[in-house]
Amino acid sequence: MIELKDLTKRFGDFTAVDHLNLTIRTGEFLGLLGQNGAGKTTTISMMSTVLLPSEGRILMDGVPLTRKASREKRRLSVITQEYSMRQDMTMSEAMEYQGRLYYLSRKEIRQKTQELFAFTGLTDFKHRTVRHLSGGMKRKLMICRALMTEPEILLLDEPTAGMDAISRRQMWNLLRRLHSQKLTILLTTHYMEEAQYLCDRVALMEKGKLDIVDTPGHLIEELGSFAVDIPAEDTLQSRYFADRDAAIAFLSQAGKEAVLRNTNLEDVFVERIGRGIG
Amino acid sequence: MGIITVLWEKWTEFKRDFYKITMAAMVSPLMYLVIFGLGIQTTSHGEPYLNFLIPGLVAMSTMTGSFSAVAQNMSVQRLYEKALDQIMVSPTPLWQFILGQIIGGSLRGMYAGGIILLLTMPIRTGLVFNGLSFFIMFLNGTVFSTIALVLSFLAKSYTDAPRYTSYIIMPMSFLCNTFFSTDQIPGGFRQAVALLPLSQASGMIRSIAMGVPEGILPGCMLLLAYLLVFSLIAVGFIYRKKTL
């Protein structure tokens, strides 16, 4: 279990994360959602000890996670939003470097590199320098690197950003498979359908503060499981209904361009976080 | 273990960029040798000027080799590639990472110094370079690797590394006992310059080379003091700096 207790990060006068209290249960898949600048990446950076909190602390099974906590860090792997790796190394060297940093034997490094490259289709490019890889390949390499150390906890900061639809689906399948192996996963994403599809619970952040934590299903239910979209001249308005019959009744009066559909997590996000958007 | 990992990383970098590293280490000292040693032939303290110059160039190359190996690399890793994040997240103790950088940087400095020795080998100078000379070269390299680490943690942009070279390394190269003795600098400033690590390293390597070792113990103690102070700052930064 990971506990974030009153976690705060300030950069000068700007508070990026403001007294965040959040618990990630063992084996849970938690999504951290929010607009740009909501504090998601800062939170992940503090959890990976790249940034130190201005206030508050992070506990892993009750043990404070600090830069000195080697045993706790051994259990973590992080896939950052940026391609945080040596650009002048080959893919094999990048994997060996990671393995060495986690005290794996050379035999283990070789074996796991082979397996992971085969799994992600990178085998043919193993001697290619990181600098010369496409964005998608770099992302795959970061996944290989993170999984090589067999972590118990995986922190993913927008892992599918910039991926094409097929690669994204492959990533989703991989994450679901990892989750089924009881891996604890924290995911930040801008894609609401991704969070809805993958996460057991989602935490919505706004301006560094936690808005709500709940299951996607319950959040949707609270808003109303049925949505009627009413296109106006330059906006799209939606009304939400708990009851399908009530939604249909409203639809019949709303004009022929109105559409009935199931409510999704994006609706929840827009209603809660995007209130007041044009 | 973490130290070995960093040394392995430095070794892969060295193998990959062997020609670039070697050329960079050779060009400017070679120019100095040709211009000041062979072109403008003169004497210093009754000895050929080359005998004065070579030990200074060895110390200077050790400094520049170590400094650039760490400063450039770390600034790029921290600010551009974000590869330092990989280290921060990993279970490798960060002090071992620092120590690996210091040793690795120093070895690169020794390589640069060794190139000068190889280049000047055909010239009959009668200079002596022994185990103690190499120890001082190593020590000098560790000091400048550590300074480079501290500066790379302070850098705001990865283009700061060349600026540090212009503001720190270049003036030291010219002032600190490389091309002329610090005795010739006006009083007050002379004492300050003489206390700088390169002045000490040059002086010690030169005195050993001339066959009259002097000031070795206080010189080494001073270099060790620099090493200790900057190492503590570097370790303090990596463990305590809120935003790396």
Entry keywords:
heterodimer, A: alpha/beta, Rossmann fold, 2 domains, 4-stranded antiparallel β-sheet, 10 helices, 37% helix, B: 244 residues, 2% strand
3D structure, described in words:
The complex is a heterodimer of chains A (278) and B (244). Chain A is an alpha/beta fold and 278 residues long. Chain A has two domains: 2-215, P-loop containing nucleotide triphosphate hydrolases (Rossmann fold, 3-Layer(aba) Sandwich); 225-262, no CATH class. Helices cover 37% and strands 28% of the residues of chain A. Chain A has ten helices and 13 strands. In chain A, a hairpin with a 4-residue loop joins strand 11 and strand 12 (236-241). In chain A, helix 3 (91-101) packs parallel to helix 5 and helix 4 (106-120) crosses helix 5 (135-148). The radius of gyration of chain A is 21 Å and the shape is globular. In chain A, 42% of the residues are buried. The mean pLDDT of chain A is 90. With 244 residues, chain B is mostly helical. Chain B has ten helices and two strands, in the order H-H-E-E-H-H-H-H-H-H-H-H. Chain B has one domain (2-240). The radius of gyration of chain B is 18 Å and the shape is globular. The model of chain B has no long low-confidence stretch (mean pLDDT 90). Chain B has helices at residues 2-16, 18-39, 49-80, 84-89, 94-120, 131-154, 160-175, 189-194, 197-209, 216-240, and strands at 43-44, 47-48. At the A-B interface, helix 2, strand 6 and helix 3 of A face helix 1, helix 4 and helix 10 of B.
